[in-house]
Amino acid sequence: MRVSIPHMGNIYVPFKAMFLRLGVDFVMAPISNQRTLSVGARHSPEGLCIPFKMTLGNLIEAAEQGADTLLMPGGYGICRLGYYTRVQEQVLRNLGYDVQVIQMGVSERKFLGILDLIRKVSGNAPLHRILSAFRFGLAKLRAIDRIERLVQKVRPVELVKGTANQLYSRAVSAIDKTDDYASLKRVTAEYLQHLEHVPRDEHAEPLIVGVTGEFYVLLEPFSSFDIEQELGRLGVEVRRSTFVSDWTKFSFFLNPFGINEKSRIHRAARPYLKRDIGGDGWESVGEKVLHATEYDGLVHLAPFTCMPEIIAQNIMPSTREKIPVLTILCDEQIGKAGVLTRLEAFVDLLERKRRASGGRRRAVVA
Ligand code: SF4
């Protein structure tokens, strides 16, 4: 059994660590790139969203490298993601690949779902080994997210543009190579320290821009035109509330006990949208309302044809809480150059707005 998963940011790092510890033959597809998107889009049914196309591209590239067991996230929610596994398996078979696409049952069965999945692909490894491998994968995930949070703060104020990005990619690769807790701890501390010492403009008061929208495009930079890096380059500090380590903590361990991290966001959205509409549409509206006084602006990432985000996009202009919102549709038909022009114009608008208000920074909540 040769196992692979589609990419979504750095999610491959914990999976690779976990499978390596369990002796599972893990095939890593190339990091998402233009070819991935082109291949995925070419073989996708018309009208599907970029998460479908990108993950299909990843699965095809993994199959090209010999993977025969492909793990695909799925959901039981209102969006069509729940159907993707079967459709993608059919597409792969039509292309001549003898593969099995397994839906990760994490939405329905949470922690038990992922344990069951790991047990199957590891050929019934004992529970203690599965738990130990899972714990190590989680530790890597937390380390990467910790570093990324700091990178978001350094990017806008660094004196030499690109330093934080370089450190970040070196940190991810160093974390990927660690094989015990001691080296993971050392590498994480090392890179956190490097980032703390990046020479920065001490007088800068960067604009604060929230990035919200659909889960996949928020976390897969290639699918959303590297928007966070580009905002950092323009001197903007990005705030994003979605991190995979947080999602894992709540979804696997706390949600089953009734602790819902999204309750606050849902409450904020309720005057305008009363219920879940699938995907992350409810949360997108709530984030705008909740952070209207903290952020200078909001970038809303919406996959083209994604109904939940289309609904959110249409509700946002009518909220009482006013804050400039730039919705960016993510799709293979949209060119990065055009997106960057819009982003620059948006940042320009926010700067003028801040100057007009006396240069005051928004109330910042860490
Ligand atoms: S939420 Fe939207 S973009 Fe995400 S899988 Fe569902 S339809 Fe596609």
* β-sheet strand percentage: 5-15%
Portion of residues within helices? 40-55%
Residue windows where pLDDT falls under 50 for at least 5 positions: none
Output the structural class.
Answer: alpha/beta
Overview of the molecule:
It contains 15 helices and eight strands. The protein has 366 residues and is an alpha/beta fold. The strands form two sheets. The protein has a four-stranded parallel sheet. Strands 6-5-7-8 form a four-stranded parallel sheet, with helices on both faces. The longest helix is centred in the middle third of the chain and has 28 residues. The protein is globular, with a radius of gyration of 21 Å. The relative contact order is 0.11. The model has no long low-confidence stretch (mean pLDDT 94). Iron/sulfur cluster (SF4) binds next to loops.
What is this structure's SSE topology?
Elements: E1 2-4, H1 12-21, E2 25-26, H2 34-42, H3 50-64, E3 69-73, H4 81-94, E4 100-104, H5 106-121, H6 127-154, H7 163-177, H8 181-196, E5 207-213, H9 215-219, H10 227-233, E6 236-239, H11 244-254, H12 263-269, H13 281-290, E7 297-303, H14 307-315, E8 325-330, H15 336-356
Parallel strand pairs: 1-2, 1-3, 3-4, 5-6, 5-7, 7-8
Iron/sulfur cluster (SF4) binds next to loops.
Short recap of the structure:
The chain is of the alpha/beta class.
Provide the descriptors you would attach to this structure in a database record:
single chain, alpha/beta, four-stranded parallel β-sheet, 53% helix, globular, binds iron/sulfur cluster
